[in-house]
Design a protein that fits this description.
Length: 136
């Protein structure tokens, strides 16, 4: 998977969101509860894991993401990017000030070891927010 290179270089904080519903308007952030904040090498490791996700073809589920990652520069104002992950249809939708149109929608292999590792990180960051038995 490809993240915006400029954003990766300037990210100082990753915020992990357990998505609760779809945005109410186009371009708005995904609503939900922040389950973790990662900085430094922890944030860099997660972005490297995301970039290592192998590509896939789209699987139809209607796009119902369970988790998103928001990346912030040192100003901590608008997110450089938000990547919302649907582990059912293998789709990631990105938006934000650093996201070029060609990176806005991507597909990843949700069955790959890297995807399992990412989902485990998300769930471990918010065990009280996960829903048992759901593959989100």
């Amino acid at each position: 998977m490809q993240l915006p290179a400029e954003a990766v270089a300037t990210t100082v904080l990753l915020e992990i969101i357990r998505i609760s519903e779809r945005p109410t308007k186009r371009g708005a952030p995904y609503p939900g509860m922040a389950s973790a904040h990662w900085i430094g090498s922890e944030a860099a490791d997660v972005m490297a894991l995301i970039e290592s996700l192998p590509g896939s073809e789209q699987h139809r589920c209607g796009f119902s993401p369970g988790w998103s990652v928001r990346a912030y520069a040192d100003t901590l104002d608008l997110a450089l990017f938000e990547a919302a992950f649907c582990f059912s249809c293998h789709e990631v939708r990105m938006r934000g000030t650093a996201v070029p149109p060609e990176l806005a929608t991507q597909f990843f292999d949700a069955d790959a070891p890297q995807a399992h590792a990412l989902l485990t990180l998300f769930r471990d960051a918010a065990p009280q927010l996960g829903r048992p038995g759901q593959k989100t």
